[in-house]
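Researcher: We're teaching a course module on how sequence relates to structure. For the next exercise, students receive a sequence and then see the predicted structure as tokens, so they can try to spot secondary structure elements on their own. Here is the exercise chain.
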Amino acid sequence: MHLSRDDAALLKARWTDGVLLKRDVFSTVERGRFQGDGGSVDAVLRRLDEVPWWSLMPARHLFGREKKALGLARGLDVGPKLLWAGDRALVRGFIDGVALHLAKPYGDAGYFRSAKQALHRLHRAGICHNDLAKEQNWLVGRDGRAYLTDFQLAACFRRRSRLFRIAAYEDLRHLLKHKRSYAPQALTPSERKILARKSAVASLWLMTGKKVYRAVTRGLFNFTDREGGGRRLVNDAPVLIELIRKNPAVRDTAIVAFADRRTGVGLYAFVEADQAALEAQLRNALAAANGPKPPEHIQIVHALPRDANGKPRTEILQLVAMNQLDLIEPMMRSETDRAFLKDIIEQRKNLRDRFNFEAGDLQLPSS
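Model: And here is the predicted structure for the students to work with:
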């Protein structure tokens, strides 16, 4: 399937390729630059021209829902602005922020107040997002505010019908589940009551519809979306981690996913060890194991970035793997963090898919 001639011509003239964010059977999503009427701006492109024929119908349905919702939400300042939309591609504004599962705003009650306000504005406009259980659909902006993204399952209502009220209630309940994870001390008594009470539709969905949904998406479409990593991150990464850890020179390893223009989803292994020449040895061992396909990139690092509990900070490593270096800066807690990451960033392996920023944009310490 191809874009229409007019859409292809417009994108060729006004779109500049950047970082591939995601590719699955429903669309390709890319970050780049868009030449609008007011000048060139950071933007995100969703296109359907690389969607396989057998998933085109649901892909077009999801595309249409997002296109309608973003158009209706224009001016609300709760999500990306719709900059342009064609028949099989659309461009939305880029939000300078990091997904909730990467930012991890522990104890940040202000963020969740902002999130609740954003949700109220969306609902007043008659829009229910319907996919807010996913942390990657909540963004923590550089300004500290909450923003929503990925409106492919959104529903637009002309009146506040019973169905609207149920969908809005579930949007709120999913937000409060995230609040319970990151800022439980800020939950009010009424919010705790909402968390304890699913709507009848949600309960029915969990018992019936969700099982059918998973059977279709994971079986028919071979689609899994754990933090955007797909089946390789879910199924292959744990096996590869165990194989890599068998090498006595390896202290620890972490594997993250990144979108790849050739394979769809690539794996990137960060291996904590002292031997810089260990990469070739690991690749040979993984190939000889006859297990899952080895990671596209293996980077040897002297130490993995870790959180207060000693766990690898995969949220940082994922941004390194995806070359979204500018999004790392708000997540740095000190100059020590910046110095620690300097070597990892400068030695990163995924250099095919780079945007118009480099390590200097992270304000790393000079050598």
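Model: If you want an answer key for the exercise: Confidence is low (pLDDT under 50) at residues 356-362. Residues 166 and 201 are 8 Å apart (CA to CA).
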